[in-house]
Specification:
2 copies of one chain form a homodimer. The two termini of chain A are about 30 Å apart. Chain A has a single domain, classed as 3-Layer(aba) Sandwich (Rossmann fold), CATH 3.40.50. Chain A is built from 8 helices and 6 strands. In chain A, helix 1 crosses helix 7. In chain A, strands 1, 2, 3, 4, 5 and 6 form a 6-stranded parallel beta sheet that branches.
């Protein structure tokens, strides 16, 4: 499985967590990691044909970014609006991403317990990522469980270092597709029908 | 009440609906309407001090944009990331937007019935706008009921023309704050206690 990581950070040199992730990803096997800010330049303009050709060479697409105002930095949205075009990603003939996987990888400044009803961020990260989830859905991609590292505003160097292998394991896990996990559970139930009530 | 409209469209001259709205807003009383793409230039760079000063002169802030991939064009996110800064919009001393109102005004290509569970867009516009809602919450702004015009991909000139006064009435309604509507209901109930069970 070939993985394309699109990293969206306005200044990766000054990042702590996203730079550490990006550097590890550039050295990982079967991973193409790209700094969108460097690719798009100051006016965030992308070569649509080249970007689309690159998407077609990979089975799993990863959007990696810090959570700024509960979404990605603008460069990723610029990329999406220019590259996920009519006739390619949606509309007549727009089935080129169908069957590929989309995986969001995000760092948040706030702690995990803030991303809950009753927490100061009110909503879960899953809820705040709905625009990306529905983008995957409309383009026929399988939306995978995101990788989220919380509390990065106050993270120590040790915590950042520890997040790197955890992130790599998640991003390269070949069995993140929910259908795979469900099939495994259903097979286990078939092997032991007395537990069949536990289907969900 | 002074209203600041920030219009986020990559090319307003080529827009149908958002240009019609923007043109009407530039002529409306007590409304400052700004084309963020023109203000920020090709590299989407904003004068943070000037933008913040302008925010302080208005009580209601409107983000107006077409729904691209279930969010705004990148120029609005560039503005948010640069202008809603630490010490201004959040963090110590960051209470400058507290008590103001945020109102999202959005056009969608797809019809209203697609923005539902079981519709092809799966989620409601309210759900997809959570990042903006939570931005309002974190900055202490009152999040108002959005103005949404659906089905604009196939809209006729007549439908676009008809949306303009509807949009203007919504954006300039001084009583959109949910506390005002709730207070009105509670007062009506106090006048007729027999109906007090209907509090929600």
């Amino acid at each position: 499985m070939k993985i394309l990581v699109l990293t969206a950070h306005p200044d990766l040199k000054r990042s702590r967590i996203n730079r550490a992730w990006f550097n590890a990803l550039t050295e990982a096997e079967a991973v193409t990691a790209r700094d969108l800010t460097a690719v798009g330049g100051p006016d965030m303009q992308f070569d649509t044909d080249a970007e689309q050709a690159m998407l077609l060479e990979h089975e799993r697409i990863v959007f990696q970014f810090p959570f700024y105002w509960y979404s990605s930095p603008p460069v990723l949205k610029a990329w999406m609006d220019q590259v996920l075009s009519y006739g390619f990603a949606y509309g007549p003939g727009g089935d080129k991403l169908k069957g590929r996987e989309l995986l969001i990888t995000v760092s948040t400044g706030g702690p995990a317990d803030s991303y809950h009803a009753g927490g100061y961020n009110n909503f879960t990260v899953d809820e705040l990522l709905r625009p990306f989830q529905q983008t995957a859905h409309l383009t026929g991609m399988t939306y995978l469980r995101p990788f989220v590292a919380h509390g990065m505003a106050l993270a120590t160097e040790e915590q950042i270092d520890a997040s790197v292998p955890e992130m790599l394991v998640h991003l390269t896990d070949p069995e993140l597709d929910p259908k795979i996990k469900q099939a495994r559970l259903l097979k286990a139930l078939a092997d032991d029908p007395s537990k069949a009530a536990a289907v969900s």
